[in-house]
Amino acid sequence: MTGLGFTRTGRGMAPFVVGVTLLLTAGVADGRAAPKEPRSPARLELVGIPPSHSPGDELNIALEVANRSQEVIEGFSLNVSVFERVDSRSTLHAVFDEPPAFEDSSFGKDYERRLPPGASTTVVLEETTEEISVLAESDDGGVYPVKIELFDSEHTSFLDDKPVTVPLIYYPSEPQTPLNLSLAMPLNNIPRQDPQGAFPAAAGARSPLEEAVAPAGWLTQTVRVLRRWTAAEPEPAAPTGPPRGTNRSGGRDTPVPPGGRGPGDRETSGRAPGAPGGIRLALAPLPRLVEELASMREGYRRVAGGATTQLSAGSAGAVGAEVLLRRLDSLLARPSVQPMVGPYSFASLPALEGSFGFPDGTAGQQQLTVGERVLDNVLQTEFEPEWVMAPEGRLDVTSLESLKLGNRGDMTLFAEDSLRSPANPSNAGCPEGSPSFACPVSTRTEGGATTGYVIDGGLEVRFEELARPGEDALDLQKLLAETATIWAELPGRSGRVVHVTAPATWRPEPALMEQLFESLATSPWLTTVTPSEGLDGAQPPAARALVERLPASEAQIEAIPALDLGSAHATIESLSAFGAPDSLVDRLRRNVLVSQSSLWWGEAGLLEQGAEYAGGAEDQANDEMRLVRVGAPERITLTSRTGRVKLEVFNDAAYPARVELVLFSAPLNLNERIVKTIPAGKQLPLTIETAAKTSGTFPLSVTVETSDGYAIPGRSTDVLITSTQLNRIALGLTVGALVFLVFFYLSRAIRRRRARPREDGAGAPAA
Fold this sequence. Notes:
The protein is α/β, with parallel strands linked by helices. It has 19 helices and 29 strands. The protein folds into four domains: 3-170, Immunoglobulin-like, CATH 2.60.40.10; 179-235 and 287-543, 7-stranded beta/alpha barrel; 554-616, no CATH class; 628-723, Immunoglobulins (Immunoglobulin-like, Sandwich). The strands form seven sheets. A five-stranded antiparallel sheet has the order 1-5-4-7-8. Strands 9, 11, 14, 19 and 20 form a five-stranded parallel sheet that branches. The protein has a five-stranded mixed sheet with strand order 15-16-18-17-21. α5 (218-229) runs parallel beside α7, α5 packs parallel to α13 and α11 packs antiparallel against α12. The longest helix is centred in the C-terminal third of the chain and has 38 residues, at 725-762.
């Protein structure tokens, strides 16, 4: 391996590249279709780089070269170009997409390594920063883009036509006024306990939550890494600048957090790479996840392949859940960790005020109330309701005022699109003169004032990239470069705080999380703080107006047809009025809240799974209320104008049931509601007095309702009533009339016969 030398203006490789570009362009101009670009013979990827560099440091940029062709690669070369420091975040983003055309320093490396097809090798750039003129001559700390190109051994053609652009972070001297980074992490998981309380699993396998709490499971490893990097710090060396507890701007005293560092303070000695501790953050465990862990530790049912297995509290899954909950509790109790509470199932709060809410407007309050109750019941940690983590920071006037009604939301985290943009774009940043929003924010609604942070959109994108499988080393360095560029905007300004919230389902490999926290803990331009600590000694909050109503996201719009929750909510509230035990009602209510989770959005299969929680809860509520039934004969005959209808009401539930029997029949002059409480497992006879207006056969409708007016499905009965009393009266009148007529005509006939002899005597001649 031989070096190709260092230059200030670049090597002679650029003219070759320009020439190739001209030839390709000419081919297209002649009207000939450009051939489909073949796959590059090799792949160049960054696999390691120190978070930052100081004068005299070796670059230690590790690169992997992989042969993905069918031919042997007989050696290769690298061309390394280093550019001037980027002066803005927009320039940084442009560099990621397209490196500058002209470098300020460059050098080349030849490698005599033979790579058969499918083979790979790793090389490390060991040159020092003193050997690179643009770094050696710079007095400014920040991000210096490095473009690395892979050529064949003859330096005539690319082996990988896509260069790797690395944001190298270089500080000629250690920053004296670091940027405060407020980091919040939701600890989330898609619900794994089904609506019936079991944990589904594939045949012959453990359930996903059992896997998560196993020693090598993602949840166990995440808590382990968090515990390692939030551990108590060693006694710090003497600080630079003002004494600890004093704002660098000379203002009021700032409480010093445990561990010895306040916002804006640095240790002269720094933290040794790999040493534990040094990270301060906010952690919001998902209440539903905590509840499922608590359920598993008591013993649980696993459903796999149609078979149900009951596992005891001594099983591996139960023990793993118990250990994890204890470690989570101790983690949340640390001064370096700020516990935060969020909705029970990670439901989007603005969505709860619309399509996914309840007609009575209580969905948001229920999500927070149930979430707080679960955390209080399972964990020993005290969660302060003043700080609320709204999923993805999505809040608007309506949803924030709903929080305020429950005495919540005095402090929170806002997405950028939750706040109105200022009329003058130059005022979008904070503090004055800063392109980025690096200070707290305050907003006011009718419910009062709320203080918090704006989630930095650029950092959020970097975290999302880090959450996706791919080039982890490069994605991590891009995240660090984003923070270094924010620092460089106002490098001497104290009290600046920038906030980022990790993605909702961020689940990095343990090694990557270790690298992230080690990088944040050892980066000289950063100090991590909890959100509460960041408010102490920070710049004054900038006033911003909240948007009235956030538009629905595409994922939310797609989820609306699949998740109609109003009916399920109303049915379960009727079950409560029916008299079902609170434990049953609460469980079904929570299942409906699970369906509201935004974790289901985005995938059709997940949407269907989420809808099953609400649908199953509604079905179970109806089945429970159908345990009350009415017993009555199909036909009842009334033999007088007034009569009694006898019914029986049966309660097959294990608790007293409160119902209303609604009886209606117009011919019987009956429209009555009878409220009854039927003892558990008993029957209650009922006798209803009634009166018939007419004779004939007609239905009597008997409906069983709850006290809030919900007609229990399948519990409406029609009884046929036959009235004969009026028919007998009519018959009596008819017979009486007939007797009268007979008597009348007989009497008349008798009178006529008696009258005829008299008439005959009067008409005879005298003797």
